[in-house]
Structures are given as structure tokens and as C-alpha cells.
Amino acid sequence: MSSFLRAENLGKVYPLPKGELQVFRGLDFELEAGDIVAVMGMSGVGKTTFLNLLGALDRPSEGTVYLEGEDLFSRDADSLARIRNRKIGFVFQFFHLLPEFTALENLSLPLMIGGLERKKALGKGAGILEEVGLADKADCRPAQLSGGEQQRIAVARALVNDPRLLLADEPTGNLDWKTGEHMLDLLLDLHRKRGLSSVVVTHNDKVAGFCRKRYIMERGELKRMD
Ligand SMILES: Nc1ncnc2c1ncn2[C@@H]1O[C@H](COP(=O)(O)OP(=O)(O)O)[C@@H](O)[C@H]1O
Ligand SMILES: [Mg+2]
């Protein structure tokens, strides 16, 4: 049986002004449907690079990624963008909300990008806003929200299209301890309730603790920790 998400022989090289930077190569990874795994490792080892490749935000220099058995990188840019929009939810360390839009507009954007008319998108978005406990903040702009609230909106945005895959890059990295705890509870709750398959990059031992498998990235390799 093929896994839900599989990376094969993945390599990434960044061109630099003086030569090239090989972040990793020959990297293999599998995520079973419904599983949640943590990826840990020091800053600069390539965790974000890896996550970006898993979610097809960037193309690998070698190797490929299969999502539900399908080779993502055999697709052209437009069709890859559609897959990302429908099947993959991203949560970033720095939230990446658009400052000129309200909370509700921000999280409803993926629906509009996917072709849903604005009114319907905002209607569905309002439902998710409630799910993340921020129904009363619908009309606030990001600057009027706390870090924790902004990240909740970002989680809502990641899930508004009902993706199957959730990729979270240090989702608690910019939150204080207490707010981070709440964010974790929310992520775990949504992972279970929505039957997601999730990869969480984290420095937080508690996050890693609730994941079913832990990996550490070191010197260009991804190793199981247990
Ligand atoms: N777009 C890029 N261009 C060039 N180098 C990059 C780029 N993105 C990341 N890097 C470099 O690749 C390495 C891995 O970065 P990253 O994946 O962000 O690591 P981590 O998320 O583990 O901190 C670092 O040395 C970083 O400087
Ligand atoms: Mg990173």
C-alpha cells in the first residue's frame, strides 16, 4: 500500500553568489494517513526547506514527492497551485497574514482563490473562525490581534479548504509559552477531528511529545528519534 505522503531521494541545492549550498540530498520520508509527526533540529539545518518541498511551495533539485500516490512535481505550475490550494494547509512561523484584510477575509482567501464567490467564501470562513474560537474578531485586522490570535487565524486559513495534509512550520515559535500551549491544543484537536495527516516542525518538546513519531534533521539527514 502506498503512503499518504512520500518523499523519495529528495535533494535541495540553493544557488549562492559564491557557488551552491546543498541543504540535503537522498532524503526519504513517509507519512501514513492520519498520522502526526514532528521534525526537530537546529536552526539552519533545512527543516523549512524540507517542509516547503513536501507542500510543493518549492521544487526539489532532485527526487520527488508523492501525495496520495501522485507525483507532485510532474505537474505544471498552475496545476500544482490548484493541488496546494485544495489539498495542503500550511501554518507558518510568522503567520503571514495580509495586513490590509480583516481576519475573516484573510482566512477566506484560499476559498476565493479556489473560485468560490466572495459571499459564500466569507460564510464558510465564518464557520471555521468559530471553530478556532475567534468569531468575535472577524472584522479585526491582523495588527489589532495578538500573536496567538493571528496564528489562530492562520490555522483557520490553512484549514478553510478542508485539506487532507497539514504542514506546520514552528507554529509556536513566535508565541509565548502559554499561548503556545493553547495553539498546540488547537492543532492537535483539529488534527484529530478533521482526520488530517500532519507534519509539525518544532523546537518544542511538548509538541514533539504528542506526535506519534519524532524525526531529527542533522547534517543533511533525517533520522527517527524513537
Ligand atoms: N531561498 C534560499 N536561498 C538560499 N539559501 C537558503 C534559502 N532558504 C534557506 N537557505 C539556506 O538553507 C539552509 C537551510 O535553511 P532552512 O530550511 O530555513 O533551515 P531551518 O528551517 O532548519 O532553520 C540555511 O543555511 C539557509 O541559509
Ligand atoms: Mg525554519
- Gross CATH architecture: 3-Layer(aba) Sandwich
Instruction: Provide mean pLDDT, rounded.
Output: 93
Please indicate the percent range of residues in DSSP E strands (runs of 2 or more): 25-35%
Q: Which sheet architecture does the biggest sheet show?
A: 6 strands, mixed
Overall tally of domains: 1
Strand order of the largest sheet: 6-7-8-3-9-10
Order of helices and strands: EEEHEEHEHHHEHEHEE
Helix percentage: 25-40%
Small-molecule binders here are: adenosine-5'-diphosphate, magnesium ion
Number of strands: 10
Characterize the overall form.
Answer: globular
Which secondary structure elements does this structure contain, and how are they paired or packed?
Elements (H helix, E strand, L loop, with lengths): L4 E12 L2 E13 L4 E5 L6 H8 L7 E6 L2 E2 L5 H11 E4 L11 H11 L4 H14 L15 H13 L5 E5 L7 H17 L3 E5 L3 H6 L2 E6 L2 E4 L2
Parallel strand pairs: 3-8, 3-9, 6-7, 7-8
Antiparallel strand pairs: 1-2, 1-4, 4-5, 9-10
The protein binds adenosine-5'-diphosphate and magnesium ion.
Magnesium ion binds next to helix 1.
